[in-house]
Amino acid sequence: MMKVQQLYTKCLAEATYYISSNGEAAIIDPLRETKPYLELLATDKAKLKYVFLTHFHADFVSGHVDLAKETGATIVYGPSAKADFDFYEGKDGELFSIGNINLQLIHTPGHTLESSSYLLFDPSGKEHCLFSGDTLFIGDVGRPDLAITSSISKEDLASKLYDSLHDKILSLPDNIIIYPNHGKGSACGKNMSSKTFDTLGNQKEVNYALQLDLTKDDFVQQVLDGLHTPPPYFPKNALLNKQINKDVNLVIADGLSPMSASEVQRIIVSDNVLVLDVRTAGDFCEKHIPNSLFIGLEGDFAPWVGALIQDINQPIILITPEGKEEEAITRLSRIGYDNVIGYLEGGITAWENANYDITSIASITTDMVPSFSENLYIDVRRDGEFNDNHVKDAIHISLQDIYNNINTLDTQTSYFVYCAGGYRSVIAASILKRHGYHHLINIKGGFAALLQSTVPLSKCRKDCALCACSG
Questions:
Q1: Model confidence pLDDT, tens digit, residues 416-438
Q2: What angle do CA 95, 127, 80 make, to 5 degrees?
Q3: Which of 108, 182, 110, 175 is nearest to 139 (CA)?
Q4: Taking Cα atoms as reference points, which of 28, 111, 115, 52 lies closest to residue 80?
Q5: CATH superfamily placement of domain 2-237
Q6: What's the CA dihedral at 359, 257, 333, 4 to 10 degrees?
Q7: Best label site of 37, 134, 219, 460, fewest CB within 10 Å?
């Protein structure tokens, strides 16, 4: 019997794969925490034989070292990989048996030099699926600008990626399933589908990068065109994945240290500690600890932490919904933020009961906006979202670039802050407050709500008379 299971983590838009056959198992590209995989192994009464890595990941810290230590499995990377831990360097075309099935390593450089895909043969010897890592996505291919060095350029890597796709992957049977490492929302590509798997044949039809009439020069140009600057934590995570890191179970145990309100107050006054509030945007706006940063578990938590908390070793005290402490610590550890020193026991209620200062952010619905029409608007969405449409005369400061533009505002001016739905705007407001901007009004529901209001927009609604827009 053969089992192939995709474990998809929406926050990181990341897919891990669990494969088992006749009491043996393999895992491809595991996340940091080992518990989910150990539970799968226990359920199947299977022994983990291999932990396969498609490449050194930049967007999350993998749990391969801890998983191998706990199970005795062999870590496998592709050709040219170098790391501080013991692993087996697989060869192009090499077969690895798991029960009565086989995985074949296919070296597919381009995203990185060691990038490899793994072709699964079923018990009958038929090609079943390809675990394509960051080489081939659904709707896209891996970006070639993350592993550039003094000896190789992004153009060189893109050229290698073209060769890998055309020489190694496109010749495979059209009916095999493509299982990529990421889906829509990941910064590892620019045009990924919301689908998490597809057949190779269909991808040949719909994936812009796989069109057979695309020359290598055209491919290089198209793949490199429109790439956004990678998040600042990417190089740090890539380095961590080559090292032996603190055991994730110890990271979680150390973070699960309850602190009283008085203890938190003493520490944040005297030390360089960040209070990270991971509750909902609404709860944070209603009341929060002064100078705390909001990044809620409800949204793309880990990527925004990596983009906005610049020091990966930053000591952190958590404010969480009750029962969400371990989840928050685990999700931080996935991107290498291992220095959670504890959490406020009893949450914001304990802080309030101890009579320590509480602050808030004004948050209004769009039906209240006209009475504040003299204020300015700050749009914190991405460039493409802003260019598509925005509030007329809004100031555009995308959330990922907020630190570079934070001094362009006036601390005495009142601003409406909005994003697409109301999550990023509260993150932005918490950052602005930490930098001395206290006259902020969050728009509940974000631009989606503003579209239904009478606030003037840069581009026309269906009814120009309603919106009084400029076009």
A1: 999 999 999 999 999 999 999 99
A2: 40
A3: 182
A4: 115
A5: Ribonuclease Z/Hydroxyacylglutathione hydrolase-like (3.60.15.10)
A6: -120
A7: 460
What beta strand segments (E) does 247-353 contain? 258-259, 274-277, 293-294, 316-319, 340-344
What is the arithmetic mean of pLDDT over 454-469?
68
Name which of 110, 208, 112 is nearest 159 in CA terms: 110
Please indicate whether the domains covering 2-237 and 246-353 agree at the CATH topology level.
Answer: no
For residue 364, the cross-strand partners are 443
The CB-side HSE value for 456 (13 A sphere, CA atoms) comes to: 11
Helix, strand, coil percentages in the chain from 3-state DSSP, rounded to 5: 30, 25, 45
Domains of the chain, residue spans: 2-237, 246-353, 362-467
User: Model-level pTM greater than 0.85?
Assistant: yes
Give the tokens for residue 82. 């170098």
Which residues does 181 contact at the CB level (< 8 Å), separation at least 6?
Answer: 14, 15, 29, 54, 57, 132, 133, 134, 137, 188
Helix pair angle (424-434, 301-308), 10° resolution? 30
What is the separation, in whole angstroms, between the first and last Cα of the chain? 62
- Other CB atoms within 10 Å distance of the CB of residue 296: 20
Does the structural domain 362-467 have CATH classification 3.40.250.10?
Answer: yes
- 211-251 pLDDT, tens digit per residue, is 989 999 999 999 999 888 888 899 999 999 999 999 999 99
* Residue 262 CB neighbour total at 10 angstroms: 12
Q: Tell me what pLDDT residue 130 has.
A: 98
Topology given in CATH for the domain delimited by 246-353 = Oxidized Rhodanese; domain 1 (3.40.250)
Burial level of 393, CB count in 10 A (0-12/13-18/19+)? exposed
Q: Which two tokens stand for residue 253?
A: 């145990």
Provide the mean pLDDT of the chain. 94
28 CA to centre of own chain: 18
pLDDT (tens digit, 9 = 90+) per residue, 375-401?
699 999 999 999 999 999 999 999 999
* Pairwise CA distance, residues 255 & 278, whole Å: 14
Nearest to 286 by CA among 366, 373, 371, 352: 352
The tokens describing 303, both together, are 């990527």
